[in-house]
Structures are given as structure tokens and as C-alpha cells.
């Protein structure tokens, strides 16, 4: 066996210098992964913001209940800490499709079991769904892949529950799919088999629905067992399943699911959305003409008594033979008093959605909200939002004063519901602590003022002076339904611009500016054309702005906040714009279709293509024959004319606007987003933060030496699905902020270091 000879120090030094030269010249792909850095992760608090599509209480343990969301995973309520605990943050980018939870179920006799049917879309590009099963209340999960797709963020996502555990034999589960019929497991969801005997209507055209994007399969929306029909330790013989169709929709099995028959006497013409069992053995069903949540203009509430087969219409607001303009989201029954019912309207936007309460089994109903007080202190922005999309409504089985209902932006809960029955006022609080479900579309961390500014889908955007406090949205005017693009002037950080979308007829300019660090806002004086949104950039000196509105066909420059607009020359019909961080006369643009780069040295008036090796390298990522990717370009802080492009194929490419490539980190397997933060002590170059794959490992990475070495800063338990925009904090070394595809905004700080 030969022995390695020691290297002479002088020859080693010479070799390192030679390698460094090759690296700087862009010849050598020299990327290394250093030891991981442990980070502490916390949500940047907004306080809800997304659609909580379902709630499930455990019937045998007080304080144990779960929430599912359409894009943000699942949560368990921690009754001692009075907060929601996220259960699915371990899902990584490759499994981002599983962050939409289609349904969930608990074993009524074993509090350890929680099952999640996970899958966000049924589109061709989406992967199949999976069953996530846990026997430790969601602390850990086992994944069981399913041979079909799920639609946790599609039509009918508030219906349910599609998944049910046999109350007499916890090994048995049934799941109603969207387009693959009914499925059964006999081993705690480890294996599944299709129930071929279930009626074909579950996979027919009649069980589909269409929104403005496409027709979607809906299929079976709930499975409900009749526990009294069986004995402990044996399969329950009687169970029901409801199909989202206006035809015959409710089916019953009396032999444990082997055969199925339509329930006689049932109403038709509407789609069932929920079915709830009462302790007296009767059932209550809510209906809508559409599955929701996009549309619903008619509906009803029915009571079904299996003992005599009688159906009774108990709709709180009768239809009188014609559509009522809205439907019904859910109904709940007090576990200890079957006379007490509550039902929620759905899509009743004129004047607003309502919850009705009955204390006589549905013979008489009274609206709850006219005698309600809402406490908005937990998330002040909720004061501008009336509850809607109330598709899950539950009376706590252990506390009839505690009633929860979901909305399109979180969970409300009562403290004293029974006061309503005696003429009192119901107090509601926003029970959404740590249930952060938003989709941020842009982040900015200024060099002074607030540490974080955000553009957020559905909620406009926020200025966070305190990252642990849910603030009000950006001050009006204007108010955007969607915040879309946001930018801060590099050398004048009090100057901020943003764009957005407005619902309904356009009656305001869809771009705004602030001169006090987003404390107050002013709409631009006018729009140059297009349909708002798009991307906007502010010059580093804060004296001009460049806006490329959606479908405008060009970018436009203003130097007087929209009083006058000048069309930029030399740009394609659709591009993303950004500003240099040093030179106030330099702007850049990237063709959305081809990836081509353009630069302006005269304040955005004229653009020319960036050619050379840099321009060619970026375009290659777009035009690759098999795997084209979006190579997103960023301007480097503190370096005039310097850009960085990141892509899922090309890694990180640093270049100049004259076309020169300065460095390409070819050792990076893929890159999704790049951000810049404060330089490490003793260094001048900004810290880089990367969401991507380095040396075969996916995660969030940090580099303090310009990309020569990368350190992974997250771990497998903290992946948060799809990570979007990443940015560092220019004032706090090591701090990073990132946007997710449904878990809101996170910030990370090196563990043990004081920010």
C-alpha cells in the first residue's frame, strides 16, 4: 500500500492561488458545502390570511382538534399553549403538491391517530396524492402514495370529510376520491383498495364542476359511519357516502361497504356539501347548487331520520321554490343536546354571510351575527373583513360555549355561545395564533425603517416594524386585493413602490408610492396602460420609477409619480423590470418569454440587449430543449452594473451589464431564489441566501464569501413546502426572510446569536 506524500507548503500555496484565479475568471466550477449552520425559524406574524378548509375535533379528548388548509398544510391545536402547531412543515419543495390537505380524520377511540389526505391539484402537471398517517398526533408521519390525484385547492375543498375511520374498528378507513371512486383500507391506511361496487355516478360528468379556469372532478365529498349499527372490534356495517351531483347523491351500505344503494326519498337538484350525525341517530345535510367556494347561488338544509326514512326540509331561510342567491356551508349539532343546531350560509355576499342557531331541532332559527362582538386584537387587519367561505362549523363536543367556524382568512371562535340563547351577545375571537397561511408575492428589507415589507396575495401587503406582531395592512389609499410587486430605493430606503390588483371594476390606480418607508401611501397620478400588477422598480436614488404593467406591451418611466409617463424604447412586449442598486440611471429588464436581458443607462428611456457570455448563459436556461427554466435576475447591492441570475438548471451566474461573466457556480444543482443580506463581520461582500439544491441536497443555504462555499441553514424538519422569494436583512448579519407557497413568511436567525 502506497503512502501519500506531504505537499510542500510553497507548492500548495501556489496551487491555491492558481485555483482561485481560475475561479474568479469563471473557468473552474468551484463550489463547496461547508458545515451546516443551525438556525431558529419563526413566522413573520400576519395572523392567518388563508382559507382554513376544515376542522375536526377528537370526540373523546378535550382540547384535541385539527385544522386543514387548502395550500398551507395541517395544524393541531395545542390547548395548553393556546396556539396552533404546524404538522406538515417537513414537506419539501419536491412534495409541495402535498401541502394542500383534501381531508383529514381521527380515530375516535385512539387519540394518537391522525390521517391526512394530501394533494393540492388534479391537473396533469401535479403528482398523485398521498395519505399521511401518524400515530403520535402528527409529531411524525408515514407517507403512503395513492394512485390518483387530490384537489386540496380546488372546487369543493371545503366539503367533507371525504376521509373517515371506522368508529368500531380503527383499522378500517374509507376515502372518497374526486375521480377514482371510493377506496378502503383495512390496516390503518397503509394499503388501499378500490371499492368497485360504489355507484358509477361518483366518476361521471355529473360529479364534476366548472369554474373560470377549467372543469374539475369533485366526486365523493363525504363518508359517514353509523356507529350504533356495529360492535366494538368489528367492522361497522352501516355507512353513508355523498357524491357532489345534482342527481341522486346520497348512498348507503349496510354490509360494511361491500354493496351500496341510494337512500330513498332524498332531495335532488342540489349538491350535498356536509353530513353530520346527531346523538339521537338523525342526520343533517347541507346543500348547494355548486360545490363552492367559487360560486353557490342556491341551497338547502335537510334532516334525515333513518329510523323511519323521513326527510324534512329545515332550511333556515326557505327557498319558496326559487333560488335564494346563496347556499349552505355546514351544519353542526351539540354533542349533548340534539336540539341545538347551527348552520352557516355560503356565498351570501349581499349583504354578508351569516350563522343561524336553533334550539328546537331546526324548527326555528335566529341569526347570530347581529348579536355578536368580534375581537380583532389578535390580527387587527381582520376588522376590514367579514366572515365568508364558512365551510366548516363545529360546536366543541366538550364545551358548548366554544364554537369554531372557518373563513377564507382564518378561524373564529366563540367564548360564550350559550349567552345568545338568553338574549345576550356572543363574543368571538380570532383563534388563529400561529396558523399562518398566506402566499407572499414579494419581499423587501430596507436599510432603514421597518425591517420587512411584503406584497401578499389576497391581503395587499404589510409593513413589519415588529416581526412578532400582526400589523394592519398597508395604509389606504389604495387597497389592493393582491399585492404583487414591491421595491425599495437602494440609496433612499424611505422611497417604496408597489403594484397590485383590485377586485371588481377598476376605480383606482394599481400602483402606489411611499416617501416614508411604507408608513403612508399615495396612488400614482395615473396609469400608463395595461391591467395593473406587473413589476415595478424604483431608481436607487428614489427619483424615478419604471413600471411594466400586465398586458401593457411596454414599460413606462415616470419622474413625477405618474403625472407623466414616457414609454421605454427597446423592450419586448412582456418583461420583468428592476433597478441598479448603485447608479440611479441604470435599469434592467428581462424578457419573460425568452429570458433575454436588457439594460438602460439613461433612467429607463432606452434599453439595449445585454449580449456576451452573460446574456447568452441566461437565455440558455430559458431555451433549453428539455428543461427550460426561469432564470431570475437580481441587481447586486453595492456593485454598479452587476447582476446575478439564478435558475433551476444553471445555478448562480454573476455578470455585468456589458455581457461579461464574472462567476458561475456550476456546482449548484439548481437555484430557485437568491437574496442579499448584511456582510459577515470582516467581509465586504453581501451575504448570499439561496433556495435550491447544492451538492445534491435541497434546502436553504448561506454563503459569506460570494458563493465559493455554501452552508445549509435549514433542516429536514423545516422545509415549508415550496420556498419562493428569499432576501436577507441588510442590517442584521445572518438574518434571512423567505416567502412560502402557503405557510406565509418566515425569518431565520443563527441559533444562539442575538439579532
TrEMBL record:
Entry-linked InterPro entries: WD40/YVTN_repeat-like_dom_sf, Xyloglucanase_GH74
Family listed: Belongs to the glycosyl hydrolase 74 family.
Organism superkingdom: Bacteria
Annotated keywords: Carbohydrate metabolism, Glycosidase, Hydrolase, Polysaccharide degradation, Signal
Name this protein carries in UniProt: Cellulase
Location of the region described as Disordered in the Swiss-Prot/TrEMBL record: 254-276
PANTHER family linked: OLIGOXYLOGLUCAN-REDUCING END-SPECIFIC XYLOGLUCANASE-RELATED, XYLOGLUCANASE (EUROFUNG)
Native species: Rhodanobacter caeni
